[in-house]
Amino acid sequence: MPKNEHIIVGLDIGTTKICAIVAEVTPERGVDIIGVGSSLSRGLRKGVIINIESTVESIKKAVEEAEVMAGVQINSVYIGIAGEHISSETAKGVVALKRDEVLRTDVVRAIETARSAAVVSPDRHVFHVLPREFIVDHQEGIREPVGISGSRLEVEVHIVTGATTSAKNLKKCVNRAGLDVVAIILQPLASSEAVLTEEEKELGVAMVDLGGGTSDLAIFSEGTICHSAVLPVGGQHITTDLQIGLRTSLADAERIKIDHGVALVAMVKETEMVEVPSVGGRPPHMVGKREIAEIVQPRVEEMFELVMREIRRSGYEGKLAAGVVITGGTSMLPGMPDGAERVLNLPGRRGMPAGVVGLRDIVSGPGYSTGVGLILHACRMGQGGETVGAGRKNGNGMGLLGRMKSRILNFF
Predict the structure, then answer these.
(1) What residues have CB less than 8 Å from 266, skipping those under 6 apart?
(2) Backbone phi, then psi, for 387, in 5-degree steps?
(3) DSSP class of 73
(4) Strand pairing report for 76-81 and 124-136
(5) Looking at the domain assignment, is residue 254 inside a domain?
(6) Residue 139: inside a domain
(7) Hey, which of 30, 113, 210, 221 would disulfide with 328, CB 3.0 to 4.6 Å?
(8) Can you give the residue range of the structural domain that contains 154?
(9) Exposure of 375 by Cβ count < 10 A (0-12 exposed, 13-18 middle, 19+ buried)?
(10) What angle do CA 185, 186, 188 make, to 5 degrees?
């Protein structure tokens, strides 16, 4: 494989699963998936690392599996981040133009000004500064201002921050697994890259990534992200409810959820029965599938009620013409799109990863949305990838400001 071919690796470190996806990026084929590896995640809770060593071992297993399938050595990765500690805010910046038209350097200065205007405490880390809208001499609604004549440039940005300690622990685990971190990307932003269409982003859409420990929300309108949040509820909560309600082990509750769980009681026939293993050596017992649904549906409704509350808080209730797109492993539960429609009163669909070739049949499920999205986000922002066959880790000597400038200049 030639050395000038670019390899990008997305590492999705989730609460229940860790997934490594390897892509080769070429002008001819675009984003070509060449390797996938996954392992059970045993060191996280609600998206936050609680056991370093367990997380490191899970990362190693997923990466080694992806390396074998792809036939390449993985040295550096793009990773996603989620958790209750994630928050977002809007900030504005303004600069005077040095010439009579907007240059790329003016865009960078305006965004830096907006970033500086935001009040970020020392224990918070800035993950993203995303331009929402540019204004040149009071002309609003500009998305690509470079080349437009004027004397004054304003920008409104969406700033995503998170706990510095969470980011450090995440990076520490990846480093201990023998890998460099190229960038940390907000998980709902990554998932949106994989499952949303440009038309949906224009009309207004809510993307909900239903993971194991958390549910990630990203709201788009007029082509740009407007609001993002991470909610502390996910598929693991359904499993725990089943464990308690059916008096069975956690592993059997997870299996029952996958094999027999549905999001709506109305989808179940009265006569359907399921054998449920007991605990402590007791014999298994029979439970109606309807009873299982009666345990699952209230938790599903709670998930989407939290989403509805966040949509209202964002100010975009009634403005999402494209409805809601749900993705993530938990979205595979039968009836989930209908459950979302009922609670949110929006048209809903299940989002599958798109925009890649190669082993796309392997990564076509909603559970791979974040991993695929990490790669697509890296490509869109022009961050490039690591060189195959280099035999060493890709160091990154740029600081935060330098990386931000590089991304902005490549984007425009």
Answers:
(1) none
(2) -85, 130
(3) -
(4) unpaired
(5) no
(6) yes
(7) 210
(8) 87-161
(9) buried
(10) 130
